[in-house]
Design brief:
By secondary structure, the protein is mostly helical. The protein has helices at residues 34-38, 74-80, 83-92, 98-109, 119-122, 131-141, 155-181, 194-203, 214-226, 234-244, 249-260, 268-279, 285-293, 314-329, 336-348, 352-356, 363-374, 381-401, and strands at 5-10, 13-20, 28-29, 58-61, 66-69, 72-73. Helix 7 (155-181) packs parallel to helix 8 (194-203). Bound molecules: s-citryldethia Coenzyme A.
Length: 429
């Protein structure tokens, strides 16, 4: 059977475009030769209908609310796996054997310390600097310390850089938190697993033994798993575009952190909790629902809606369950923000506006309540998202660098500015 094609009638000519199918999900119409053949560009600001790459890592079905990492459903990974096992899966494509897992855990654990000189960076920031600003700076600076893993053409250096980034992000994040609250840095402890080590670095103090609560550590692992990767979202696309120029992986991840910070993306968890706190009580919800529907009001329900999910974000359901587990373990009975969140979700899911626009809670809707209960300030929420998403960014970066057809990303435009005109001396303006 001949390969599927799509026909385009343009300027009196018929052009045949190749159609390619993935293993699952929408077909793609290959337009790589369109400009050469027709002299025209496609136009898709926001890339709502554009596949920017071919990938084997994560599949999302927005209508069905499905999220698979290398084919494994997110709910099964959240239930049965741990974060470093999901990291291995995202990086290498298969679940590890026991020996592979032990080796991977060993390698990551022994890269968790940062160069001691890096602690000097923090003193350059004000204590009240937003931790995401600190993360952008310090993670970008990793390329100033680890020259021996910046040659992206060397598979060994690519692997070392990947391990270093996964391992050091929680350490740097915990340092950003400790600096923010004026407490001394706490070194990683090799006998702790990924999430327990992170909680220890954030909440231990030198004056006394700190015992990590295993229920909270498990919840933290699950939160990291839920945030690990998510197809070609804005920050992942930023990392891919930065990497396509040959920039070193540390600089690319710093670019991803900067993009994630936006309130429309990873910054939504901080914005969602601030919104729930601003609403304050259940009786004020209708006022905010009305504002969210008002075309003239820029207000949006943070933690609601998604470019891909036109159904419930499967991660949000697991996040909601984790929220109740954490609040239960901590004996938090009546959290007003949780009451507002549950009632806001109930109202929004029955409101014609939200139903018509297929707006459902996304992962950021409940995560803030959980992270606040775990003891983090709202300014740290997106930092935690970045800690988890680093493995997704670096896995997608690795896949792009290892693609033999990879080339620098360079989109074009629809130009609507002035046509050519001569310079006018200032005396004649
Ligand atoms: C993440 O891409 C990813 O995968 C991201 C992410 C990941 O894991 O990497 O899943 C993480 O970023 C989750 C999204 C977090 N952001 C928020 O919660 C911020 C609030 N949500 C919105 O800003 C919005 O829903 C976006 C940005 C998430 C998606 O925006 P789109 O796809 O560009 O959709 P849109 O802005 O064109 O909205 C479609 C319509 C509009 O109304 P009309 O102009 O058609 O009349 O829905 C409305 C919007 O006004 N709408 C909302 C709304 N989100 C969309 N109205 C009220 N409240 C909202 N939250």
């Amino acid at each position: 059977m001949s390969a599927a094609t799509a026909k385009l009638e343009f300027n009196g000519k018929t052009h045949e475009l190749k159609v390619r199918s993935g293993t699952v999900g929408p077909d793609v119409i290959d337009i790589a030769a369109l400009y050469k053949d027709t002299g025209a560009f496609t136009y898709d600001p926001g890339f709502t209908s554009t596949a920017s790459c071919e990938s084997e890592i994560t599949y999302i079905d927005g209508d069905e609310g499905v999220l698979l990492h290398r084919g494994y459903p997110i709910d099964q990974l959240a239930e049965h796996s741990d974060f470093l096992e999901v990291c291995y899966l995202l990086l290498y494509g298969e679940l590890p054997t026991k020996a592979q897992k032990d080796d991977f855990d060993y390698r990551v654990t022994r890269h968790t310390m940062v160069h001691e000189q890096m602690s000097r960076f923090f003193t350059g920031f004000r204590r009240d600097a937003h931790p995401m600003a600190v993360m952008c700076g310090v993670v970008g600076a990793l390329s100033a310390f680890y020259h021996d893993s910046t040659d992206i053409s060397d598979p060994h250096q690519r692997m070392v850089a990947s391990i270093r980034l996964i391992a050091k992000m929680p350490t740097i994040a915990a340092m950003a938190y400790k600096y923010h609250i004026g407490q001394p840095f706490i070194y990683p402890k090799n006998e702790l697993n990924f999430a327990a080590n992170f909680l220890h670095m954030c909440f231990a103090v030198p004056c006394e033994e700190y015992k990590v609560n295993p229920v909270l550590a498990r919840a933290m692992e699950r939160i990291f798993i839920l945030h690990a990767d998510h197809e070609q979202n804005a920050s992942t696309s930023t990392v891919r575009l930065a990497g396509s120029s040959g920039a070193n992986p540390f600089a690319c991840i710093a670019a991803g952190i900067a993009c994630l910070w936006g309130p429309a993306h990873g910054g939504a968890n901080e914005a969602a909790l601030n919104m729930l706190s601003e609403i304050g009580t259940v009786d004020r919800i209708p006022e905010y629902i009305a504002r969210a529907k008002d075309k003239d009001d820029p207000f949006r329900l943070m933690g609601f809606g998604h470019r891909v999910y036109k159904n419930y974000d499967p991660r949000a359901k697991i996040m909601q369950k984790t929220t109740h587990e954490v609040l239960g373990e901590l004996g938090i009975k009546d959290d007003p923000t949780l009451d507002v969140a549950i009632e806001l979700e109930r109202i929004a899911l029955t409101d014609d506006y939200f139903i018509a626009k297929k707006l459902y809670p996304n992962i950021d809707f409940y995560s803030g309540i959980t992270l606040k209960a775990l003891g983090f300030p709202t300014t740290m929420f997106t930092v935690l998202f970045a800690v988890a998403r680093t493995v997704g960014w670096i896995s997608q970066w690795k896949e792009m660098i290892e693609d033999p057809h990879q080339k620098i990303g360079r989109p074009r435009q629809l130009y609507t500015g002035p046509t050519v005109r001569d310079f006018v001396p200032i005396a004649k303006r």
